Amino acid sequence: MKVDGTHYRSLWWDAKKDALQIIDQRWLPHEFRTQSVVTLQDFADAIIQMRVRGAPLIGATAAYGMALAMFIDPSDAHMAQAWEFLHNTRPTAINLRWALNRCQTALLPLPVADRAGAALALAHDIANEDVEINRQIGLNGLNLIQDIAAKKPSGEPVRLLTHCNAGWIATVDWGTATSPMYHAHNAGIALHIWVDETRPRNQDALTSWELGSHGIAHTYITDNAGGHLMQHGQVDMVITGTDRTTRRGDVCNKIGTYLKALAAHDNGVPFYVALPSPTIDWTVADGVADIPIKDRGEREITYVMGRNNAGQITEVQVTPDGTHGGNPAFDVTPNRLVSGLITERGICDASEAGLTAMFPDLSG
């Protein structure tokens, strides 16, 4: 996608610097900054501090981290150490483990001397595959939007609601939940997107930044406004992303997603999840019981970051002194509340049968 007319991916390899470049997303939407990632600690910090964020992007970042590890020391022991070091940064997002396992499986049989070059080539492949996966998700989701648009009075926009940023900066490009929006807009379909703020980090401010850059009409709303809009017929469909989806179709996503699904179910609004196949955890069935939910630091709750009237990016405390903040970062939406899963291969039911039929080669 483009930033001020220039095409960017969320990460890219700079051959001149011989290093990975990322967009440091902590400063968005107020400032656009890029950063070189040159040490394993840099990779860990980028993931932990959410300089990179979104399950697909985290997976691609980890693949480049494993490549760096192989340039430092391509031994079996160091590969195992790097796997643990990078995996411990974000236990919820399954793409991280998927990418690390894929690297380990591909590299272990190779001669030690060949591992560094092969690891870097594999990281490039993982990044490029993510772009194509998300493009295909967009084309499949476009069919749903076209069906809604065909039933609308002439000129009335299709009104979509999304929660948390599942846009191109949460992937390598295109995004998951946003990819159908970009394809629909490019096809000339009138859209209006309701963009949840997504406390505590207000990540959908990034979605607003993305959509605004692409010329898509949208409104930024509080997290608790979505149910009201659905009650009054102002939402045609909800589309979210996912950090991990179980084999039976339970969806783990940013905290607050479950409440949107409940409101959608109560009001007869379709609730779809954009699902790249690396986000499926085939080892887990019951998402509520078996997916670990990370508690992040309480400062994310007790402070908010923004830009003041002087144009400075600053933090402001919003709670009384001494008040503690609880910060579960994700919740799980049971499959019974999900209308369907938009994958790179098509749209399927949120069920074990649906996912297995769509991905017979992966369900194993």
How would you characterize the overall build of this protein?
A hairpin with a 4-residue loop joins β3 (11-14) and β4. The chain has 13 helices and 18 strands. The protein is an alpha/beta fold. It has helices spanning 40-48, 55-72, 76-87, 94-107, 115-150, 179-186, 204-214, 226-231, 257-267, 287-290, 299-302, 352-358, 360-363, and strands spanning 2-3, 6-7, 11-14, 19-23, 34-37, 158-162, 191-196, 218-221, 237-240, 244-246, 251-254, 271-274, 280-281, 303-307, 313-317, 330-333, 340-343, 346-348. The chain folds into two domains: 2-128, Up-down Bundle (Four Helix Bundle (Hemerythrin (Met), subunit A)), CATH 1.20.120; 138-363, Translation initiation factor eif-2b, domain 2 (Rossmann fold, 3-Layer(aba) Sandwich), CATH 3.40.50. Its EC number is 5.3.1.23. Keywords: Amino-acid biosynthesis, Isomerase, Methionine biosynthesis. It comes from Octadecabacter arcticus 238. InterPro entries: IF-2B-related (IPR000649), IF-M1Pi (IPR005251), IF_2B-like_C (IPR042529), Initiation_fac_2B_a/b/d (IPR011559), M1Pi_N (IPR027363), NagB/RpiA_transferase-like (IPR037171).
